[in-house]
C-alpha cells in the first residue's frame, strides 16, 4: 500500500488553558472522501483549519504527499477550502471570484478564462457568471465557493460545514452534487459536519471526534454498525443501549451470551432498532411487552418494555408483508443477531 | 390626533429642512447669483456679467492650480495614513490601535485653531520638532523651511484631517468580513495582494469619502496658510477672504469660490474614476 | 518574520500616536510653564498664565458668548435633528439616504464658502450681525451630526418593541415618551454634546457672522494676530479640555466606536 496523501502525527492545538485538539494521528488516502464528524466544540473545525494551514498546530507535524507542510501557510499549501458561509468576494462577479486564484497563481489570461469556463460548466453556473454573489441563491453561492476552490486543482479539498447554510431540500440536492463531483474529478475531499446523516451519505470514511479527540474512524457502515463507544453509538443514528455485565470474556444478555473480550464489569450492549427481529428465535432473545406502536412513514416504531423496565426501540418496515404488527399490550420476543451487537463501556 | 404617516414624516423633517434651506441652500444660491453681479461705488449691483469669471481665469488660475496640488498632496497623505492606521486597528488590534482610535475620536471635534498654532510653535526654529531632531543628532542646526512653507501647511492639515479620514475608512474595514480574506489567502494571495484585491475594493466608498473630505476642507482653508504658510504660500482661500474682506469685491470672491468648488468637483470625479479603475478586477471577462 | 512585522506595526502605532497628540499635549504643557515664549526649557510649573487670562475682561465676555451660542445650538440641533432622524427612520432607505446626503452637505464643504455666503446674505438683508446670526449659522452644520447619530440608532431599532407597545394600546406620543425616548436618551444626549463641541470650536463661520463680538475661538484668533500673549496657551487648553471632555462624554453615551 502506498503512503497516505495526508499524514498527521501528534497534532494538537491548545488556546491558553483550553485544549481544543488533543494530540492525535490521522492518515487520509488519495481519493478518500472523509467526514470529520462531531458535535460543536469537538475540535473538528480546528483540525480542518490546521490541515488548511490557517492555524499553526501546537504540537506535531502535517505531511501532504510526503512533504512536511507544518510551517507553511494556506497560500503555500496545495489544499483549498470551501468556507462556512462561503467567504465569497462580495465585490467580484462569479467569474472573477473563480478566476482570482488562477490570477494570483500567475496563470496566463487565456488559460484563466478557459479554467473559469470549465469550472462554470462543472458547477452549472454559466448563466450567472457576471452576477455578484449577493444576487445568487444559497445553493448557487455554495457552488461558486466550490468552483473557486476546485479551479486550483487542490490535492485536498477542505470543506467546513459546506451545506449547513442550506435548507433541507437544497442540502439533499447539493449532497448528490458533491458526490458526483467527487466521482467526476476523483480528488480527495475532507469535510467537517455535525450532521451524521450527511456524513454517512457523503463520506467513504468517517472520523468521529469528541472533546478534541478522535474516538472512532472507519467506513460509515463500521461506525454505524460497530460503534466504539457509548458516545459514537448515541451520536450516530438511533441506538438501544442495554445494560449488561461482562464476565470471563462473555456478556450475558437476555437468553444468551455474547463473546466479548475485555475486563469484567458492567458494559452496554448497543443494537440498532432496525437490526432487531420481532419474532426472535435465535440464541439471543429478549421478552417484553409492546408499549408503543407508531407509524413513521417508511417504518413502524415499536417500543417494547422489558421486565426490568428497559425500553427497547424496534423499527420494522411499514410495507413489510406478513403478519400485522403486534397489538399494544401483547408480549413480544425480540431476536438480537449477535453480529449486530456491539459491546461498549458504559 | 391621527395624521397620515407621510404627513407626519414631512412634519418631522420640517425644522431640519427649514434650517438647511434658509441657512445653507438660500445663501449658497444667492452667492452663486452674486458671481454674475458687479460692484458699483462699493455697492453690490445686480447685473448679468461673466467678467468676474473672466477675471478669475485671468488672475487666479495659478493660485487655484497651486491650491489643488497642495490639497491633493494633503488628501493623498491623509488617506494613505488613515488607511494604514485603520488597518492597524482592524487587523493588528493590540492596545495601540484602541488608544489611537480613542484619541482620534476625542480630538475629532476640538481645537481647530489650537491645533494650527500648536504646529506653528512646534515647527519654528526654536520649536520642539527642531529641538528634538538636534538632540537626536539627526541635524546640526534648525531646519528653517519647516515653518512658513507649504510643508508646514501640509503637516498641519494632515494632522487636522487625519481623524476625519480615519473614521469612515475604519467603518469600511469593519464591513470586510474574515472569510473572504481567508479564502484569498487559501488561494495563494500574499498579504499585499489580499489588501489590494480584497480589502481595498470593498472599502472603496469609504476611501473615497475620506479622500473627498481630506481634499475639500484643505482646498478651501485660509487660516492654516495664513498662520503657518508664510508670505509665499497663498492658497485660494486667502484670495477669496481678501477679495471679500480686504477689497470688498464679493462678486469676484464668490466667482473664485465657485470656480474652486467646480475645480474640486472635477478633481474628485476624476479621483473617483481612477479609484474605481484601479480597484476593479481585471480578470474573469 | 511575523514578530518583525508586529514590531514594525507597533512602532508605526507609537509614531502615529505621538504625531496626533504631541501638539495638543504641548499646548497644555506650556500653559503650565513659566517660560513666556513657550519654548524649551519650559521653566517651573505655574498657574500664572491662567491668572492673566482670568483677569482679562474679554475672556469672560467671550466665555459668556460661547456659552450662549453652544447651549442654544445644542438645544435646537437636538430637537430638529431628532425629529428629522425619527422621520427618516420611518421612511424608505432611499429617501433617507438622499435626505442625509443633502443635509450633510454643509459639513463636507470648506467652511469659508458657507461663511461668506451667510455673511453676504445677512448683509444684503440688512440684518445686524451678532449672536442671533451666529446661532442659526451654526445649526446648519451641527444638526447633521445629531441626525446621523440618532438615525443610525433608529435604523437599528427593534420595531417589535414599538409594535408591542401599540398592541398594548399606547398612542404615538406615549410610545415615544415611554418606550423610544428612554432607549435612545443616551444617544440623544451624546449626539447633542457632539453638536455642542463642534459649535464651541467653530472659528470660521463665527468670525464672519458675529460682527463685533467675540467667542472663545475668535478671541484666540485675536490673540494670535497681536504680539505674543502667553496666556493664549491657557485659553487654548481650556477650549481643548472643554471640547475633548464633551466629546469623551458623548462617545461614552453613544457607545460610538468609529
Write the layout of secondary structure elements.
The complex is a heterotrimer of chains A (346), B (285) and C (258).
Chain A: E1 6-15, E2 18-28, E3 33-37, H1 44-52, E4 59-64, E5 67-68, E6 79-82, H2 94-104, H3 109-122, H4 138-150, E7 156-160, H5 168-185, E8 188-193, H6 196-202, E9 205-210, E10 213-218, H7 220-225, H8 230-235, E11 240-247, E12 250-253, E13 256-259, E14 265-271, E15 285-295, E16 299-306, E17 311-317, E18 331-335, E19 342-344
Parallel strand pairs in A: 3-8, 3-9, 6-7, 7-8
Antiparallel strand pairs in A: 1-2, 1-4, 4-5, 9-10, 11-12, 11-14, 12-13, 14-19, 15-16, 15-18, 16-17
Helix pairs in contact in A: 2-3, 2-4, 3-4
Chain B: H1 5-34, E1 38-40, E2 43-45, H2 51-59, H3 61-92, H4 94-107, H5 112-123, H6 128-135, H7 150-174, H8 178-186, H9 191-202, H10 204-219, H11 223-228, H12 236-246, H13 250-279
Antiparallel strand pairs in B: 1-2
Helix pairs in contact in B: 2-13, 3-4, 3-7, 3-10, 4-7, 5-7, 7-10, 8-9, 10-13, 12-13
Chain C: H1 2-31, H2 48-54, H3 57-90, H4 93-103, H5 105-108, H6 111-125, H7 131-155, H8 159-167, H9 172-201, H10 204-209, H11 216-225, H12 231-254
Helix pairs in contact in C: 1-12, 2-12, 3-7, 3-9, 7-9, 8-9, 9-12, 11-12
Architecture overview:
The complex is a heterotrimer of chains A (346), B (285) and C (258). With 346 residues, chain A is an alpha+beta fold. Chain A folds into 2 domains: 6-225, 3-Layer(aba) Sandwich (Rossmann fold); 238-344, Beta Barrel (OB fold (Dihydrolipoamide Acetyltransferase, E2P)), CATH 2.40.50.140. Chain A is built from 8 helices and 19 strands. In chain A, α2 (94-104) packs parallel to α4 (138-150) and α3 (109-122) packs across α4 (138-150). Chain B has one domain (52-284): MetI-like fold. In chain B, strands 1-2 form a two-stranded antiparallel ribbon. In chain B, α3 packs across α4, α7 runs antiparallel to α10 and α10 packs antiparallel against α13. The longest helix of chain B has 32 residues, at 61-92. Helix content of chain C is 79%, strand content 0%. Chain C is built from 12 helices and no strands. Chain C is globular, with a radius of gyration of 22 Å. The mean pLDDT of chain C is 88. The longest helix of chain C has 34 residues, at 57-90. Chains in contact: A-B, B-C. Chain B: It is found in: Cell membrane. Chain B: InterPro entries: MetI-like, MetI-like_sf. Chain B: Residues 64-273 form the ABC transmembrane type-1 domain.
